[in-house]
Amino acid sequence: MPSKPFLSIVLGNLKLKNPLVLASGVMGTSPTLLQRIALAGAGAVTAKSCGPQAREGHPNPVMVEWEHGLLNAIGLTNPGVDEEVPLLEETQALLKPLSVPLFASIFAGTIDEFGMVAEKIVAAEPDLIEVNISCPNVNDDFGMPFAADTDSAVAVTQAVKSRVGDIPISIKLAPNVPDIGRIAQAVVDAGANLITAINTMPGMVIDPDAVQPVLSNQTGGISGPALKPIALRCVAEIARSVSVPIIGTGGVTTGRDAVEMLMAGATAVGVGSALWYRGPEAFNLILKEMQSFMEEHNYRSVKELIGKAL
Amino acid sequence: MLNDSTRWITLNRSIQAVPGQFVMAWLPGVGEKPFSIAGMDPLSLMVVDVGIFSHALHTLEVGDFLWIKGPLGHGFSLEGDRLLLVGGGYGTAPLHPLAELARKRGLRVDVCAGASTEAGILLIEEFNQIGCNLSIATEDGSRGLKGLITVLVTKAMKRNSYDSLYACGPVGMLSALADLCRLHKVNYQLSWEAHMRCGMGLCGSCEVSQAFDPSLPPGWLACYDGPVFIKRWA
Q1: Which range of residues forms the domain containing residue A164?
Q2: In A, which residues are within 8 Å of B221 by CB distance?
Q3: d(Cα B132, Cα B100) in Å, to the nearest integer?
Q4: Does some domain include residue A162?
Q5: Under 8 Å between Cβ of B124 and B204
Q6: How far apart are CA B37 and CA B21, in angstroms?
Q7: What is the pTM of this model?
Q8: Distances (CA, A) of B151 to A143, A160, B111, B136, B145
Q9: Cβ-contact A71, A81 below 8 angstroms
Q10: Is B77 within the bounds of a domain?
Q11: Fewer CB within 10 Å: N-end or C-end of chain B?
Q12: E-assigned strands of chain B?
């Protein structure tokens, strides 16, 4: 019998026991929830985004399932960076024995605030800082996402990078931009160590009986199966444009989905809405399915899959 | 109206659910909140007027529409022959369909109901009608024993040997019951209340901390893993 294929990966300066990363905003709102996901088999976990101040988020309904995915507008609910730091420290203590790296996620409304939040979050010593410049659900509060404009994306990257020392940063990009490859190139030139792609895609679900959109925010971010082909295209574009590792995120629910994401050029694979379809067991199920695919096709390591379809 | 602030809302549809499961009720333009299923055929909800949304439900008239998503979550599981049901205030709502099912199967059902005053003791006649053995406690003594419901429960546990305890009510009451059950090694099923948002296990809002019951696993979500938490002693 040949030995099992290697699932472990190297993501920048980090070692992950497998390529699956809990995507930000899904379940990762407390130390114990992040611990639960780590125990469920994730290779790394990303905390819910935190900003300069506490935010309650949008009123209900904040999430709805539709035929081909989910639509959500939680509205960046978070306790604010000052409260987040001790929570992340607590999380680190729970994750250390499990050897699961912790990614922080930050957002802000201005370039200066991005710098401020980044500077504060460093105290929690996260293994990576994801910079969420692409939340589609807070336009009323913050205007267009920074990810929509190359100059703004670059400015945020520089502001964060200059304040976090050695901690690697990953810029989380939006799918609904004319040239995602060029934006990726620009933020990498500005100091990004990785790219996370993609955030959710703006969308709307209407209830015809109610004669109005279902979400209180009217619009939300599409995730789940409908997002996968969009994410694959974006990841492939980015992989052709830059050489930094990509955390490919969007609609991955099965092992085959994860393999597709790797073949599009991702080094790690974000998992979010899959937790609705398959529960926290999604991580172990996806890993098992990946492993059987790799055995069937004689891949010995995840590394061999990266960019294979390009 | 069941009392000054509590309304029984009946829909013109039935729902196939396990007692203890919940629904999300949506009023377009007003909001969306979780409610225990208080009756299945027809679907019924017990609504206490405590905020903007529940107040809007109180102003609904016969024939108005209400949007229902569900059944959601995991409900109670009938285990054993002799059951103790404990309802704090409007926590009796999900216990009522459970009692009905248990009585249909010929199980012995004792019910402890408690509230701060007599007005908060709800669904008593309904439990009586289906042959449950009832005891009541109020904090001000306006009905039944004067004191906390846990006093009733302690007495009942001393008197009888129960296969399972089922409860719904305020978090403090549930914590105290979890302690009692741990002490007496009684299997229990508690329906936890938490601030639910997405109702789909993704937003993380409704985590119930182990501080409330050390038997809960870390990261336990009321909407996804619960609302009913089942503890069986080996």
Answers
A1: 9-305
A2: 27, 33
A3: 9
A4: yes
A5: no
A6: 6
A7: 0.94
A8: 56, 57, 13, 10, 9
A9: no
A10: no
A11: C
A12: 6-10, 22-27, 31-36, 39-40, 43-48, 67-72, 82-88, 108-115, 133-138, 145-146, 164-168, 187-191, 228-231
Helix/strand/coil for B218? coil
Ordered DSSP codes for B128-170: HHTT-EEEEEETTSSSSEES-HHHHHHHHHHHS--SEEEEES-
pLDDT (tens digit, 9 = 90+) per residue, A62-119?
A: 999 999 999 999 999 999 999 999 999 999 999 999 999 999 999 999 999 999 999 9
Residue in B200, B201, B204 nearest the CB of A30 = B204
Chain A positions in Cβ-Cβ contact with residue B32 (cut-off 8 Å): 60-61
Q: B86 and B56 in one domain?
A: no
> Residue A257 in contact with residue A222, Cβ under 8 Å?
no
C-alpha span between A6 and A142 (Å, rounded):
43
Q: How many CB atoms within 10 Å of residue B136?
A: 17
DSSP annotation of A294: H
Give the ipTM: 0.92
Enumerate the active-site residues of A: 135
Strand-pair category, B22-27 with B31-36: antiparallel
| Cβ–Cβ contact A71 with B under 8 A | no
Please indicate, yes or no, if residue A3 is contained in any of the structural domains.
no
Quote the number of domains for chain A: 1
Predicted confidence (pLDDT) at residue A139 exceeds the cutoff of 90: no
